[in-house]
Amino acid sequence: MNIQIRPILVALRRHKAGTLLIALQIALTLAIVCNALFIIHQRLANMSQVSGVDEADVFVITNRWANSDQTTSQIDAQVRADLLALRQLPAVRDATPGSGYPLKGGGWDNYVMLTPEQVQPTTDAAVYTGDEHFIDTLGLKLVAGRNFRPDEVMVMGTQQAITPPSVIVSKALADRLFPGGHALGKSFYSMGPVPTTIVGIVDTLQRQGVDRYAQSHAGQSLIWPLRADDARGIYYIVRAKPGQLAAAMREAPKALLEQNRMRIIDPKDGVQDYATIHHKVYDNDRGMAILMGIICVVLLAITAAGIVGLTSFWVGQRRKQIGVRRALGARQSDILAYFLTENFLISTMGVVLGTVLAIAVNLWMKNRFEMSSMSMAYVGVGVLVLLLLGQGAVLAPALRASRVSPVEATRGG
Amino acid sequence: MFGYYIDLAMRSLRRNKALTTLMVLAIALGIGASMTTLTVLHVLSGNPLPGRSGTLYYPQIDPRDNSGLMPGKEPPLQLTEIDGFNLLRAKRADRQALMTGGSVPIQPDSAAIDPFYVEARYTTADFFAMFGAPFRYGGGWDAADDEAKARDVVINSGLNERLFGGANSVGRTLHMAGSLFRIVGVLDHWAPSPHFYDLYTGSYGYTEQVFLPLQTALDMHLAHNGSNDCWGNGTGGVGSIYPSSSCVWMQFWVQLDTPAKAADYKQFLIHYSEQQKALGRFVRAPNVRLRNLMQWLAYWQVVPDDVRLQAGLAFGFLLVCLVNTVGLMLAKFLRRAGELSVRRALGASRRALFAQLLVESGVVGLVGGVGGLLLALLGLWVVRHRPSDYAALAHLDPAMLLTTFLMALGASLLAGLLPAWRACQVAPALQLKSN
């Protein structure tokens, strides 16, 4: 089949306004769609990060003290008693006290330095506190070194900052501080004049926050052997025995209240399983991804409908010319090819302009919203989608055109 | 004439239902999406204290050392305890209040209610007058109460409802954080949004239920909520509470009634920084800012990035919908070249044809606008049911309602302009001959 491009171009020149409008629409659609795809992919990547926690069995109790005038030693005694009670529950495997938990949506983080005099921090780490049960409770995987010993666990009172001599770090932090896998036994400084020495390394332990700042230090966390006996309250992280999560979540708050009633466990979100925590912390990301998805679909639908509308009009306008061509020997497939090629030419114009626009939009987003650069793969996918969309949309009117009878040439004025 | 044009428009629109539906739908979707996001943007970037915001300022000074632990040329966003009290006691502004956030447990008298935590603001006497917080009963405390570390508390209307059924509770006591407080005032409904005076505790939909003197709270070591940034080895060592000179965790607001006073106050901040440097407390050259309330919100970029991004994309979306409508309108008008030529031949001027076609696109815009409004209402309903902290604020106000209609009408007239002009260029004789 021999497609003549020149006559198509000549014809298009007679429909400048319409041609330019379709091309512009395709360009704008491409610019928005590939940036939206980029955002969707980024958000989905955020959401699919592994927390390192045994999410199926772990839940968190937010325990606030009703009497805020307790001394640190009173609180510590209560916390120890609470932990003992929790660990004795039939459905509970282990429990640990904490000042925060992974995916909490923000919390304590510290700058980390390799020397005490350092002016620029080396990196930033999320800070977790817990006792010797922390690793087992969260289901973390110790890949080097050892767990904390019970005698290493120190007490931290309200608004106190303590740098314990030993620390367990995530592999991401270990690799960031001491590339080459020699982190075990090394020391670093974190907001204090006293060094802290790495005694263990856990595989994956995500940070408490998931915001942009946290993403740029993803997975860099440290655990200090501390019981955070804050006068306000404490988090109890609890791991149920496999399959007994629901039972453990029922028993645990009851057991705590039996211990001592002077505490407040919010009936609404005082006890949360990890499915809930995970769902909540990525709510914005999920909402944004869904919204972008809807925008993409609707935009593509509108653009397709626009192409159908305008091409149908052109077909209607050119019935006579089509009839003449048919009468002069053009086959149905020639007419079909004519309209498909015409659309392809317009779409190509659109996607070339659209690629420029897409990069411009990405630059704007980079400036305004500190986003990263979009990979050209998104533009490639977008171009492909729009070219196929154009061909698909033009198919119905083009088929109608191909069925125009040669007799039409003789009809009308 | 106008009535005739409307009639013509309706006939023409009815003739090709699919095309008309598509145009109306495109405009409605574009308008609906942009109005939803624009309304959210408008609500979130609103002025929390209209009429007062121009005279409220947020002083910033730079007490950091050179350790680089808090990088950046801008001074910290909050004050240290020492500087806060120094500036407060200098009393160089018309009004001033030092404050920070916290939360305290309340032990209700009635055994039927379990103890619960409330959000608290620890502040100084001028807070209420400076921000124009309305009282339903009683009033605030005074500067003497601040210094005396009085156990006075102001509660908000919600807490008054919960504890006292909305009755006048002034003079009654509140068992709070293990101590007895005297209620001196009950606020009327007051929830400035954004929560400008302390954006760390929450930007939108956040209110404190109790307000108590800052020095009382410090004396009782009540729990602090919000941000605390330290430098140097400020946080090290067992037993240290926030060091008063190397951690910033307090907000300080001043009221300066004239621009001249604001300029003087800025000079005072520079002078203060120099003095502190001479004393050896500050190491950096004076680095001060004095932003008024709206400048402060803009600097903070209080509107979430996602919301601005959504608004940007929604307008891109509207643009595509408009281009789409222009294309369809063009096709439609050009197709009617024959009909238009007849009208021209019968004596209608180009102007009259142009007006007629614009009326037709205006009708499309109006119907699209109504559709867009319905979609925007639906969109805002969805926003309100999302778990974001600004969800409850997403309502359409009269200003945005008017904007919607003007935008829809303007957009469709704009979309009709080019097609109508092109269609008016037909040469009647040629068209009539060829038909």
Q: What can you see in these coordinates?
A:
The complex is a heterodimer of chains A (413) and B (435). In chain A, the strands form 2 sheets. In chain A, strands 3, 4, 5, 6, 7, 8, 9 and 10 form an 8-stranded mixed beta sheet that branches. In chain A, strands 1, 2, 11, 12 and 13 form a 5-stranded antiparallel beta sheet that branches. In chain A, strand 8 (187-189) and strand 9 (195-202) form a beta hairpin. Helix content of chain A is 50%, strand content 17%. Chain A has helices at residues 5-13, 16-47, 72-88, 134-138, 171-177, 212-216, 245-259, 274-281, 283-317, 319-327, 332-369, 376-402, and strands spanning 58-65, 92-98, 109-112, 123-130, 142-145, 154-156, 166-170, 187-189, 195-202, 221-228, 233-240, 263-264, 271-273. Chain A is α+β, with helices and mostly antiparallel strands. Chain A is built from 12 helices and 13 strands. Chain A has 2 domains: 5-47 and 284-410, no CATH class; 67-261, no CATH class. Chain B has 435 residues and is of the alpha+beta class. In chain B, helix 12 runs antiparallel to helix 13. In chain B, strands 1, 2, 3, 4, 5, 6, 7, 8, 9, 10, 11, 12 and 13 form a 13-stranded mixed beta sheet that branches. Chain B contains 14 helices and 13 strands. Chain B folds into 2 domains: 2-45 and 304-434, no CATH class; 53-300, no CATH class. Chains A and B meet through helix 2, helix 9 and helix 11 of A and helix 2, strand 3 and helix 10 of B.
Shape by Cα distribution of chain A: elongated
Described by its quaternary structure, the protein is heterodimer
Note the gap between the termini of chain A.
Answer: 32 Å
Query: What general form of chain B does the structure show?
Result: elongated
The residue ranges of chain B in which pLDDT falls below 50 over 5 or more consecutive positions are 235-240
Radius of gyration of chain B: 31 Å
Secondary-structure element series of chain A: HHEHEEEHEEEHEEHEEHEEHHHHH
* Helix fraction of chain A by DSSP (H/I, runs of at least 4): 40-55%
**Could you tell me the strand content of chain B as a percent range?**
15-25%
- How many β-strand stretches of chain A? 13
Count the domains of chain A.
Answer: 2
List the helices and strands of chain B in order: HHEEHEEHEHEHEEEHEEEHEHHHHHH
How large is the count of helical segments of chain B?
Answer: 14
| Greatest interface (CB-CB under 8 A), with counts per chain | A-B, 67 and 68 residues
Percentage of residues in helical conformation of chain B: 40-55%
Number of helices of chain A: 12
Mean pLDDT of chain B: 86
Which stretches of chain A are poorly predicted, pLDDT < 50 over at least 5 residues? Answer: none
